[in-house]
Amino acid sequence: MAEAEVRDFRYERKFLVEELDAGQARLLVKRHPAMFYAPYPPRHINNLYLDTEDMENYYANVDGVDERVKVRIRWYGTLFGEILKPALEFKIKSGLVGTKHIYPFPPFRLDDTFDHASFRKLVLLADLPEPVRLYMKGLGVVLCNRYYRWYYATRDQLYRVTVDHDMVYYQVRRSCNHFRHRFLDSRNIIVELKYDKPQDVQAGRISGFFPFIVTKNSKYVTGIDRVYL
């Protein structure tokens, strides 16, 4: 069985930017006294979010449950067509900090042939520990989202910032998916400050420079609210 890639627990401070465009937000990051630089190029991020039939993960997030999980399949680059290197991610939240367990996932094709039955076959093919596979049997794909992300980091790599914009959300049904029911959010920008637990003591001097509003933001919750409710 494939071993999970397990990330250290870290903080993710999120800021909602409403009055600036993406270029202005990025300029503020680059002008930060901590001297953030771009460690690698920006790229599109794509996600398929999974949940139970009763939407347990969605409601846990809305209700602010301390111990909760989000499950998604993530890949980069093109949204539709052949997806060659997807990854299955369990994003685990414990109070104010979170971590990820990441597993390889089989390649698949995202188009109007994608449905619940084809997803179930992928789960059977996936190289997963048996407890993970059993948990996955109770999940289905409920949302697709895509956005463009810029990456920044301090030279010592202790603090990372991402800038996301052009968020788009698609409803995903159990069958007959034409990905026409969507919501495009080209106005709001999400800035995230990320750092490991030991760096929390100095995090205030980093976040204090940003003239942004600290927010509780979940792209998964936003997407469900926009395309279903």
Secondary structure topology:
Blueprint: E1 5-6, E2 10-17, H1 22-30, E3 43-51, H2 56-62, E4 67-76, E5 81-83, E6 87-94, E7 97-104, E8 108-110, H3 116-125, H4 130-136, E9 140-153, E10 160-171, E11 182-185, E12 189-196, H5 203-207, E13 213-214, H6 219-227
Antiparallel strand pairs: 1-7, 2-7, 2-12, 2-13, 3-4, 3-9, 4-6, 5-8, 6-7, 9-10, 10-11, 10-12
Helix fraction?
Answer: 10-25%
| Biggest pleated-sheet summary | 8 strands, antiparallel, barrel
Mean of the pLDDT scores?
94
Low-confidence stretches: none
Q: Beta-strand percentage?
A: 35-45%
Supply Rg. 18 Å
At the fourth CATH level, what is the homologous superfamily?
Answer: VTC, catalytic tunnel domain
Q: What is the CATH first-level class name?
A: Alpha Beta
What is the global morphology? globular
Count the E strands. 13
Structural class: alpha+beta
CATH-defined topology? mRNA Triphosphatase Cet1, Chain A
Overall domain count: 1
CATH architecture grouping: Alpha-Beta Barrel
User: Biggest sheet, strands in spatial order?
Assistant: 2-7-6-4-3-9-10-12
H/I helix tally: 6
What is the terminal separation in angstroms? 39 Å
